[in-house]
Amino acid sequence: MTPLLIEALRTPAALAAFTPAQCDLVLRQAERAQLLPSLHARARDAGVLERLPAPARRQLEWARQQGERHLQAVRWEVRQIRMAMAGLGVPLILLKGGAYAMAGLAAAEGRIFSDIDILVPRAALADVESALMLHGWAGVGHDDYDQHYYRRWMHELPPMRHVWRETVIDVHHAILPSTAAAHPDAMLLRAAAEPLPGYPASGSLPAVYTLGPVDMILHSATHLLYESEFDHGLRNLVDIDRLLHEFSPLPGFWVRLTDRAAALQLQRPLFYALRHAARLLHTPVPAALLQGNDVARPGPVVLALMDALLDRALLPEHDSCDGPLSKLARQMLYLRGNWLRMPPWLLARHLFHKALLTPLQAARTRDV
Amino acid sequence: MLTVAQLPAGQLAARLAGAGLTLQTGAFVTRLQSTIPSVVRGVALMYADYPLGPDDGYADFHLRMVRPLNWRRWLRPQVQLLADGLAPFKPLPLAQAYPMFEWGLNWCISSRAHSYLMLHAAVVEKHGRAAILPAPPGSGKSTLCAALVHHGWRLLSDELTMVRLEDGLIAPMPRPISLKNGSIELMRAALPTALFSPPVHDTNKGTVAHLRAPADSIVRLDEAARPAWIVFPRYEAGAAVELQPVAKARAHLRTAENAFNYSVLAARGFDAMAALIEQSDCYDFRYSSLADGIATFERLAAPP
User: Most buried by CB count within 10 Å: which residue of A120, B8, B76, B177?
Assistant: First the structure.
């Protein structure tokens, strides 16, 4: 049976016919999937807020308030980051939630996220890191191995947290680790970044950019299929749904999306993301893209397995949606994400270190 | 409306063990599930007068109290609070199950109900006018509140003052009053007929017991009250009773420090707080005996 939250995301107007008991459940599913504020936005846009039972409308109103405050906090945080990067001569390119929020996209409405992601040239990493440290951000909770691992293999610096505000920033130089099979060229992404209206370079302050529309979708798809944390799987898929909803009317959009996926070696994640957005959320996607070409589409066995995993893992992680295999599906996708991000020998070494040496070192430190 | 006490014998435990008991706690409906005996007894004793929520399958908050399945189950049994299936807190010793329910419900409300400006404060009402008592733990706020509601004041809340954003009125949220350490014996002696839950020792707040909310405050669940006073109480042994006016700007900041969602509400929170302070007389109140406390509040409420 389709979970109520999925029905509501497909057709928000359906909420008007929900019984109080159905409202109870859909709110709990949305809360678990971190989609409560988004559900408010969808119900409002569909004009059905007033037709919901008063207590359910009130819960959505609570979530709207939190979502709005979050957007305000994000705008403030981006200003702080921009000031910290003053004088570096490095443009500030926002990724994911921070970009959606600053660009005022529908995908940002009600999206609560814990960190701001930015993209800078690899050559500028050291300068950006020092500048952020001077302004109060510091790497936290990482031992020597983590530091080494991030700096040697990952596409981002270890997360940095601001000492007073406790906000977290992830500084990326690429959107996938250098060890992943696909190598989307970060230079292409930076070259196509679009300036955010109202934030031009001014004095020593850098201009603020987001990725271009198709790149934003490709990054979101990559994030969904590679980052492997499926506790936010549905929320990430909803991002893709909202971005497609907003950008697909642009002239030549679908052709540009396909061409760009090829140029960035991201056809496979795009294929899965479009397929499952269409399957689960009924996002309109042209048949040719759903079919995919030989590069985009996996073989029938892999496809059947991935469908079986994603069909389960993308549902809200709530008792009312979990089947007997949901947990296993999420674990297998987690392993797959890591597998794709690292060659086997590195993955083995990484898991060995994380499982045995890190706890051992932690225990030793405690003894001292 | 059916109350908890009116449920046929065995029905309370059966509902708690099954689909859950829905309680109308102030403006919210809470669904609670538990088979832990101290929780069943605590709810039967403390919530006897509460109306059951509507029977339509909707609840604002979904709480379950369970015993976690771990080795401690046998040696040092524990209790876990689940909010719609997730555990927001670490388990506590099983003996603390009932207080944990109260704390868990407070957490549910204070972390979500953003159609109110929520203050960590006791609030009582007389002649339609409310006195808010914001104060850090240890200031004697709950003890004073317990004394007042047994001397002519209506309990709106002992822990959460809910200021409605739409009209600035205070929505009642009467719940059992949480008493700590020495004030438990003090109130037992002062209120020989009142009902207390069994004291629970060694919590992180010390010994804790709950005092049942007066029946009248529960009957009047729907009657909001206009804020009239903000009184910052401070209990000081041996001190002379003293009621000192507090400047409005200072009172605004001090009340904001005691708010749960001042920052979440942003500009709306500031406006609501400003309106609240504007219509309230604000005082610092130092006292060393409950009799002084009751007399001072009596004078406050007396028509000019």
Answer: B177
DSSP 8-state secondary structure symbol assigned to residue B225: B
Write the CA distances from A209 to A82, A118, A155, A195, A258, integer angstroms.
11, 10, 19, 4, 23
| pLDDT at residue A114 tops 90 | no
Best CA proximity match to A243, nearest among A118, A104, A68: A104
Domain membership of residue A366 (yes or no) is no
| Predicted pLDDT at A364 | 62
**Rounded CA separation A96/A211 (Å):** 9
CB distance A68–B58 less than 8 Å?
A: no
Mean pLDDT estimate for chain A: 90
- Confidence band, pLDDT 50/70/90 cuts, at residue A363: low
Predicted pLDDT at A276 = 97
- Give the range of the structural domain holding residue A236, as residue numbers without chain letter: 4-361
In a domain, A327, yes or no: yes
The verdict on residue A367 lying in a domain is: no
Please spell the DSSP secondary structure of A88-101, one letter per residue.
S---EEEEHHHHHH
**Chain A contact for B63 (CB, 8 A cutoff):** no
CB contact under 8 A, B265 and A69: yes
Q: Residue A196: which of A92, A106, A42 has the closest Cα?
A: A92
Q: Nearest chain A residue to B83 by CA: give it.
A: A28
pTM, two decimal places: 0.91
As beta bridge partners, residue A160 has A139, A169
CA-nearest residue to A29 within chain B is B84
Are the Cβ atoms of B266 and A318 closer than 8 angstroms? no
* Nearby residues of B25 by Cβ (< 8 Å), 6 or more positions away: B50, B105, B173, B175
Best residue in B84, B116, B117 to probe A by mutation, most A CBs within 10 Å? B84
Listed in sequence order, the DSSP H helices in chain A are 4-10, 20-32, 36-45, 54-84, 96-102, 125-134, 144-153, 186-191, 213-226, 233-247, 253-263, 267-281, 287-291, 300-313, 326-341, 344-352, 358-367
Instruction: Report the gap between the CA of A66 and the closest CA in chain B (Å).
Output: 6
- Smallest CA–CA separation between B284 and chain A, in Å? 31
State the Cα–Cα distance between residues B36 and B56, nearest whole angstrom: 26
| Residue A323 identity | G
Amino acid (1-letter code) at residue B288: S
Give CA separation, A349 vs A91, A158, B23, in Å: 36, 19, 54
Supply A190's token pair.
């930076």
Q: Is residue A159 over pLDDT 80?
A: yes
Q: What are phi and psi of A253, to 5 degrees?
A: -55, -50
Q: Which residue has the tokens 């008007």?
A: A16
What tokens does A78 get? 């981006």
| Rounded distance between C-alpha atoms, residue A88 and residue A255, angstroms | 36
DSSP 8-state secondary structure symbol assigned to residue A122: G
A33 touches chain B (CB under 8 A): no
Going by the DSSP 8-state scheme, the letter that residue A354 receives in this structure is I
Q: Which residue of B has its CA nearest to A30?
A: B84
CA torsion angle for A5, A7, A9, A12 (degrees, to 10)?
Answer: -110
| Count of domains for chain A | 1
Cβ contact B172:B217 at 8 Å: yes
* For residues A6-10, average pLDDT: 97
Nearest residue of A to residue B262, measured between CA atoms = A69
B220 contacts: CB under 8 Å, gap ≥ 6? B154, B172
- Is residue A93 a part of any domain in this protein? yes
Chains A, B: CB pairs < 8 Å: 49
